[in-house]
């Protein structure tokens, strides 16, 4: 395996790792958002229950205090995961950019080798032609 293939393979692996990391972060954010949505549904259900049950209505205030605290924690968690997601996206973009640079360098080296091979073949053919005349 040539150095070019090794570099491209390593950088491709880095891109795959970054894609996996980003996927995991996005999944965590989705789950956190789903939990927040479920909390909002619980609030609606509890409010509906409180309308029908006087005892539940008395506990509603304490329930809502707890919901505000949970909502704040969940919102903060979603914000933090959002920052992590942005970092993961940036890291993926950098890894992809590095991979493309390695691919370009490898391609330029391959083209240079092909030109050198063509130049050598032409020189050998020219030498054969001169020997045939002489």
Structure description:
This protein has 134 residues and is mostly helical. The chain is 97% helix and 0% strand. It has helices at residues 3-52, 54-133. Helix 1 (3-52) packs antiparallel against helix 2. It is rod-shaped.
The portion of residues forming beta strands comes to: under 5%
Q: Give the radius of gyration.
A: 32 Å
Overall geometry: rod-shaped
Q: Overall mean pLDDT score?
A: 92
Q: How many distinct folded domains?
A: 1
The structural class is mainly alpha
Helix content range of the residues, please? over 70%
Ends distance = 44 Å
Element layout with pairings:
Elements (H helix, E strand, L loop, with lengths): L2 H50 L1 H80 L1
Short structural summary:
The chain is mainly alpha-helical and 134 residues long.
List keywords for this structure.
134 residues; 97% helix
């Amino acid at each position: 395996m040539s150095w070019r293939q090794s570099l491209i393979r390593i950088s491709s692996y880095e891109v795959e790792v970054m894609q996996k990391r980003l996927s995991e972060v996005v999944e965590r954010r989705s789950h956190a958002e789903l939990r927040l949505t479920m909390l909002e549904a619980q609030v609606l259900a509890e409010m509906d229950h409180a309308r029908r049950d006087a005892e539940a209505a008395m506990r509603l205030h304490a329930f809502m205090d707890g919901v505000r605290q949970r909502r704040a924690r969940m919102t903060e968690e979603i914000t933090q995961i959002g920052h992590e997601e942005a970092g993961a996206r940036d890291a993926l973009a950098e890894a992809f950019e590095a991979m493309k640079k390695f691919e370009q360098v490898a391609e330029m080296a391959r083209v240079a080798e092909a030109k050198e091979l063509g130049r050598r073949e032409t020189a050998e053919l020219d030498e054969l032609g001169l020997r045939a005349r002489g």
